[in-house]
Structure formats: structure tokens, C-alpha cells
Amino acid sequence: MVPRFTPEALEANQDLVDLLKKVAQEKKATAAQIALAWLLAQKPWIVPIPGTTKLHRLKENIGAANIEITQNELKNIDEALNRIEVEGDRFPEELEKRTGL
Fold first, then answer.
1. What integer is the mean pLDDT of 35-54?
2. Confidence (pLDDT) at 92
3. First and final C-alpha spacing in the chain
4. Mean model confidence pLDDT for the chain
């Protein structure tokens, strides 16, 4: 249903997953923690709201608050992200119209 998660888009977007895994390995964290820590490092007023129904995932998500991403690391991650073209829209066309974006 979500274009970004079709098999073709998942394959095309593997570079993004690989980047997260690489940074996670360097930081001794999970890819999910790096994604959340990256969001937290952007601006002090950005607050990610991850959802989960599993206690171990909640604990994992909370662990992201303890990961420090330096300005230099942010710059390196952003440069790598800029070289990756994400395939697939975030929402199906009908839902996208409702976002006002």
C-alpha cells in the first residue's frame, strides 16, 4: 500500500539501510537507535515519536537518547544521505493529497 515499501523500492533504498547499519556499528547501537539519535541531533525542538507495541523495542528506542552524534558526524551522515536517492512516495497518492504537502 505504501509506495516506499514495495519490493522494488525496498531494494532500491537498501543503500539507506546500509548507511544506518554502518553508523550503528560504529556507535555500537542499532539502526533504529541511530535513526532516532539522528533526528534528536537535528534541532532541539525536534521530538521523534516512534511507535511500538513491544517493551524491548521501547527500551531500544529510549536508548537512542544516550547516543551522541557530533556535528562532524551529522555532516558526514548528511553528505552520505544526499548521495542516496530514496525511491517511492511516502504515502499512496490519495493519502498524499490529504497531507497538504
1. 92
2. 87
3. 19
4. 92
Q: Are 74 and 81 in contact (CB under 8 A)?
A: no
- pLDDT at res. 91: 86
Q: What does the alpha-carbon distance between residue 59 and residue 68 come to, in Å, rounded to a whole number? A: 17
Q: Is the pLDDT of residue 20 over 90?
A: yes
The answer to whether the beta carbons of residues 4 and 86 sit under 8 Å apart is yes
The answer to whether 34 and 27 are in contact (CB under 8 A) is yes
CA distance 52 to 62: 12
Q: Among 15, 14, 34, which residue's Cα sits nearest to residue 80?
A: 15
Q: How far is CA 69 from CA 51, 73, 95, in A?
A: 22, 6, 34
**The 3-state secondary structure of 6-40, one letter per residue:** CHHHHHHCHHHHHHHHHHHHHHCCCHHHHHHHHHH
